[in-house]
Amino acid sequence: MEGLIYLDNASTTWPKPENVYQYMIDSYRQCGVNPGRSGFDLAIEASSLLNNVRARLTKFLGGDEATPERLCFTYNATDALNLIIQGLLTSGEHVVSTNLEHNSVIRPINHLVRDAGVIVTYLPFDNAGFVDPDDIRKAIRSNTRLVIVNHGSNVIGTIQPITEIGRICKEAGVLFAIDASQTAGVVPVDMIEMNIDIVAFTGHKALLGSTGIGGLCIHKDVEIRQTRSGGTGIRSAYPYHLEEYPWRMEYGTPNMVGVASLWAGLDFIEEKGRENIYQHEIKLARKLVEGFRDIERVETYCCDSMDNHLSTVIMNIKGMDTGDVGIMLDVDFNIAIRTGLHCAPLVHQQIGTLPLHGGVRFSVGVFNTEEHIDRAIAAVAEITTRARTQPASAK
User: Fold this and answer.
1) pLDDT tens-digit readout, 355-377
2) Which DSSP string corresponds to 92-104?
């Protein structure tokens, strides 16, 4: 859409780099066949792409480069997180998580609590938006099987102290998994250095790939129980799903267009530099926060400091419904953001925005500019002038 200012990159990054579009088209035209199902040249070429992306992502996430088969592709991070949670927890076991989680963690856990006798502890975050690692330590019990933490919040943008939490989990002998949906591609994830057992990621956010692709990177000593079964393309006479990786966690024909998008997305990230991308985005996010601070009736959350923070900012205008603000930004100013609860109700419950129908989220991406931020600040300032005659019912 011409003239659109897109500030919804926490939902999905857009636009994608041009090389991502081109490589998706070219690879699908040239070898868009089923990998691992046949022995002709194009099928071998498709399998080679699949395995090369496994190896490259394993290295990118700081996994064990000797076991790239432990990089398993899924539909998205929600799919990956369901495989983790349902494949690790059984009746009577305890899981520790946080109020920062997305529903892709909350709902699978809650189903197991309701239906299978699993026990959960959700830990709060502090006023700045961070979970205290010592709270994790105190929450671990003798029957704790798993600690699962959102690396970077899709609502308030805070980046959690994963290294410290990982050390605590390792000392306690408890498995540690992270949801890296918002961070993989823009913030370093190092499984070995951070003592992470399992990383769940998605392709369509900071990895700059397409929708419909995600995955798991699993430590060589971790075994996840199979919760699905189906075709793998090999050993078809065997009556059960294969136990070896990656097929243990993969089912049916892979999304090869999505896999290709990840290869090209990594090309872009490595060419630009992950740290350079982060610094560009956080600089613009800081500018956005500073602009909002000068606007009467605007309240921001957990961004007094932008240290250890993603380029995601959530705010509200006192006296205005969040949905109305989003509509005005879209219709009157051609600015795309996201309003509501962002599939993370516990965050909004803790920061007090649940009764307000959530918040107005701005999330900066690699292709945003200072002009975009200036126009967003100006738009919010103008919208607040329309609210000054209304009662300030929002806190």
Assistant:
1) 999 999 999 999 999 999 999 99
2) T-EEEEETT--HH
Q: Which two tokens stand for residue 61?
A: 């996430």
Pick from 52, 12, 23, 21: which is nearest to 35 by CA?
A: 52
In 46-173 the beta strands, taken as DSSP E runs, fall at: 71-74, 94-98, 119-123, 144-150
Residue keyed to tokens 């102290």:
161
Q: Could you give the CA distance from residue 123 to residue 49 in angstroms, rounded to a whole number? A: 41
| Whole-number Å distance between alpha carbons of 248 and 214 | 16
- Distance of alpha carbon 262 from its chain centroid, rounded? 15
Instruction: Walk me through the domains of the chain, giving residue ranges and CATH numbers.
Output: 5-15+273-387 (3.90.1150.10), 18-271 (3.40.640.10)
Burial per residue of 346-375, b for 16 or more beta-carbon CB atoms within 10 angstroms, e otherwise: bbbebbebeebbbbbbbbbbbbbeeebbeb
Three-state DSSP at 139 gives: helix
Instruction: With cut-offs at 50, 70 and 90, classify the pLDDT of residue 235.
Output: confident
Q: What is the DSSP letter of 118?
A: -
Report the C-alpha dihedral over residues 243, 245, 248, 249, rounded to 10 degrees: 170
Question: Residue 252 corresponds to which tokens in the numbers above?
Answer: 């049916």
Q: How far apart are CA 142 and CA 228, in angstroms?
A: 29
- Determine the Cα–Cα distance for residues 137 and 123; give it in Å rounded to an integer: 11
pTM for the structure as a whole = 0.95
